[in-house]
Design brief:
The protein is an alpha+beta fold and 336 residues long. The chain has eight helices and 18 strands. The strands form three sheets. The chain has a five-stranded mixed barrel. It has a three-stranded mixed beta sheet with strand order 15-18-17. A two-stranded antiparallel ribbon has the order 14-16. About 15% of the residues have low confidence.
Length: 336
């Protein structure tokens, strides 16, 4: 009888697979080999999920733009996390962001799962898939014998879909169906913006819900995004390829971070407002238009304000619960 793998052997193999998947989509041969490995021992799927969670912790370093100054935007260094700690996220830099792993007992009516402001929640599903919910997000999970369905009611979620040959995985959002056999992808539904799909691994097929009529199906592959238009403009929808570095920056929130490369300070302040009850107010219009590049803790708007004040020679003040940024006062010109 073949010797059973030790937990260390499985963890090492899972780390190798996670590294291969991070480098890009697997070939058909690689995908078959991965599925064969996963089916060989029930411990392997959980080990792969742990290895992928650990890889999230290191992805943030890739999010830095070419003009990033590590001295100007330095954050306090945190101790390296163990495998067990990686799924609990402690430390001052992400103290306001919690990662709660929940076992979801679904029913025919579905289970509603949500996050509060500043909270990130990892939801393991009973088929081995996971959903990582960003701040102020809500989903409804429905599993039955025919399909695996998640409805994104609001916010942002990253789906890591485990293969199930019998049941497709479907995400419904605003009358659209996002269907896949196996993929990693983010869906964002915010009030002021169109629904945005970003695929990091695998392929997702986008179509209209049966209740909204028959339309074309769009295939969105890895390192591609699609902005979902309303019914009147769907014919113009086109997937757009994005660089792997952009995908990494867009998904930095999975590690409790916000990554910017050229966004204005005003846009950055709006991004921080999703995660914290401490708003950032920029009182100088010219300062608000300054571009910012760097990686910051989403739960630390004060730390972001200090970095901005240092780099842009601005003044940082606290006004009640607000962080206020303005241009430093200029000395009066000398009399001629």
């Amino acid at each position: 009888m073949a010797e059973r793998d030790t937990s260390r052997d499985i963890d090492q193999a899972a780390s190798d697979w996670a590294a291969r998947m991070d480098r890009g989509p697997l070939s058909s041969t690689g995908e078959a080999a991965l599925q064969a490995w996963l089916s060989g021992d029930p411990r392997r799927r959980g080990a792969l999920l742990r290895a992928q969670a650990l890889s999230m912790m290191s992805e943030s370093a890739k999010a830095l733009g070419p003009d990033f100054d590590p001295v100007a935007f330095a954050e306090p260094r945190r101790a390296r996390l163990s495998r067990r700690q990686a799924l609990t996220w402690s430390g001052a830099a992400v103290a306001a962001v919690s990662l709660a792993a929940l076992g979801v007992a679904t029913s025919a009516a579905g289970s509603v799962i949500s996050t509060d402001r500043g909270e990130i929640r990892l939801v393991p599903l009973k088929d081995g898939s996971t959903v990582l919910l960003n701040t102020e997000s809500r989903i409804r999970v429905r599993y039955d014998d025919g399909q695996r369905q998640v409805v994104l009611l609001k916010g942002e979620a990253y789906f890591s879909v485990a293969r199930d040959e019998r049941r497709p995985f479907v995400v419904e959002v605003d009358g659209r169906r996002l269907r896949t056999a196996q993929a990693g992808f983010r869906v964002r539904k915010l009030e002021a913006d169109p629904v945005d799909l970003l695929v990091s691994q695998g392929q997702v097929e986008v179509s209209a819900s049966p209740l909204f009529g028959v339309t074309r199906t769009i295939a969105v592959s890895a390192n591609t995004r699609l902005s979902l238009a309303n019914a009147a403009h769907r014919a113009a929808e086109q997937p757009r390829a994005v660089a792997p570095e952009t995908v990494t920056r867009e998904l930095a929130w999975r590690d409790g971070k916000l990554a910017f490369e050229g966004e204005t300070l005003g846009q950055a302040a709006q991004a921080f407002a999703r995660y914290s009850d401490t708003p950032i107010e920029i009182r100088d219009p010219d300062l608000a238009r300054e571009p910012v590049t760097g990686l910051f803790a989403a739960s630390d708007p004060v730390g972001f304000g200090r970095a901005v004040a240092k780099v842009f020679d601005a003044r940082l003040q606290r006004d009640g619960d607000k962080v206020v940024l303005s241009r430093a006062a200029q000395p009066p010109a000398a009399a001629q």
